Model the fold of this input.
Amino acid sequence: MSQTEAAPAANNFHGLAGLRRAFATPSALTMLLLGFGSGLPFLLVGGTLSTWLRDVGFGLGTIGLISYISFFYVLKFLWAPLVDRYQLPLFGLLGRRRGWLLASQLLLMAALAAMALQGPAVSITSFLVFVGFAAFAGATQDIVVDAYRIEIAPLEAQAALAATYTLGYRFALIMSGAGVLYISDLSGWQLAYLAMAALLLLPVLATVLSREPERIQVTRELNVGDAFVQPFEEFFSRNGLLLALALLAFVGLFKLPDQMIGVLAGPFYLDSGYTKADIATVSKLYGIWIGIAGAFLGGVGVAIFKIRRMLVVAAIAVAGSNLAFLLMAQNPSQLWAFFAAISADNLSQGFAGTVLVAFMSGLTNRHFTATQYALLVSLANLPGKFIGGLSGFIVEASSYETFFLLSAVSVVPTLALLAWLWPRIDPATHPPVSLARSAA
Done:
């Protein structure tokens, strides 16, 4: 994380030797810690929060509606242009990227601490306001980390950086999942969330010690209107309307099966007869390590094989893994069924996450990194988040089994779009043929 680290040459990262070299760069260590910071709030305003609410007596429908607060993660492209073009006062002394990053991390720490001290039982309204602040800060942190990763290293190193980022992210999911459940079982939810706020000191340290990416020189500074319009205008003009819409739709549908069931995962485990200790051990500890293995498998796959083949494998794996939850539904309280379902789900999630990150990284123009990548990530979560918010009502009107089947079938439009995109994706590189990075 040296301030003086030189940007590595792109041609140093080809093949397996290049992959090992990319993993050994200081940027990879930085991304490990920043990935930890990005992953920490995700469950704390999502799956772990749903478990907390179910534990204190909230209904499935209400929990689903509350999950819409995490829509900040879906809508972050709306304020990403400000992050892309402007430095924050005072924090900007660290640079454009690191300034925004530090500000979002400090806001996130404060919001998580406020959630812990307030709690949902005292005043649900105030509690949800703090959840909103935490989701906004976490989403802003994601905007900056994604832009930082793309700008700090060449495209050829992105698979390795995506894998180390995912490793840090998964470590954070262990803490914000299993860690929180263990602590809450022993000492209550308040102490658990305060401990998570304290862990954010690790990514704060990484932000302070890391180097600022080199800023792309622009011919003129954009005003506020241009900052919002030009990133989207460039994306569509570079790819053409039809291809651009197809790419956005494909990214939006890719994670749909996984996103659909995310909100109700914690409540489903409790309703299936598992204790918080069971959930922490199997889903939030064992499962995370399986996800880490899947993430690195995805990184190796992208580095060695063709990206479009990996997209097919990832899409089918994510959808198919949802069927494994039928084992749990049909064998409640049986740990073997829990282990089997979590193994399939987390391995496919980790693999697909790395593949999708590597693919989306190749679709952005470095003049508009934060905005364009935020748009792609937002779309990757939008359909699933929307349906996930209604999932409680769907389950209450039918059953968990029916919902899992529906989530698996939702992969069909994704595969249809990929079939159309297949000849338009360069078989030798990440991005489609027409998506080579332009010099703007």
